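$ run holo --ligand "adenosine monophosphate" --emit tokens
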Amino acid sequence: MSDCIFCKIVDGKIPAAKVFEDDDILAFKDISPARPVHVLVIPKKHITSLATVSPEDSPILGKILAKANEIAVAQGSPDGFRVIINTGRVGQQEVPHLHAHIVGGPDPVGPMLKRI
Ligand code: AMP
Ligand code: ZN
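-- output --
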């Protein structure tokens, strides 16, 4: 997707503070962090949202969740974290490339976030 901001990050066309990547997924710091640790984990291939995944996307979705703890610990959230995946209009997703927010830090993140 040529006009997708997160595809541009994957392609290196715009910069990001990358914290992890492999062949399938990329993790980078959110540009506007809501908590001391705030990382976005995305599939490198363009998937618009959880509302548009196909059965063959299941392994990559699993990989995103399976890597979350390692990323959180490495970034300074050693004792847990929260994962949020805003989806579509009702989920108030702003960037239409599927991404998991990993939010945390040294202290509890607080009640369910209204908007991150
Ligand atoms: P969402 O509302 O779930 O779609 O969240 C989009 C997130 O992407 C927001 O938390 C933004 O701060 C973040 N974001 C937007 N552009 C960038 C960027 N270029 N680099 C890092 N994070 C970004
Ligand atoms: Zn994209």
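-- notes --
The CA atoms of residues 84 and 100 lie 6 Å apart.
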